[in-house]
Amino acid sequence: MNEEQLASRRVHCPYCDATFDLLVDTSQGSQVTWEDCHWCCAPIQVRIEVALDDELSFSVTLGRDDEVL
Q1: Cα angle, residue 46 at apex, residues 51 and 64 outer, rounded to 5°
Q2: Which Pfam families does this one have (predicted)?
Q3: Radius of gyration (Cα) for the chain, nearest Å?
């Protein structure tokens, strides 16, 4: 995957509230994955919802590891 093909979204860690840029591969469609916070290293559950008709239209929801997204 080429980094130019990744979309960037500014997000807040659900643990420490630090802000960081999350790179999202929208070509994979909607998905649930995990990302460690860049500041506190806590495991963040990431839900990515990609629009069926437009890969560039997507939403990102973050949650703690014990939350159900």
Answers
A1: 145
A2: Zn_ribbon_21 (PF14255)
A3: 12
Query: How far apart are alpha carbons 4 and 41 in whole angstroms?
Result: 25
Do 65 and 40 meet the contact criterion of CB atoms below 8 Å apart? no
Contact 40, 13 (CB under 8 A): yes
Give the separation between CA 35 and CA 60, rounded to whole angstroms. Answer: 12
Q: Give the model confidence (pLDDT) of 19-50 as tens digits.
A: 999 999 888 899 999 999 999 999 999 999 99
Residue 13 corresponds to which tokens in the numbers above?
A: 């860690």
Residue 10, classed as helix, strand or coil, is strand
Count of residues in the chain: 69
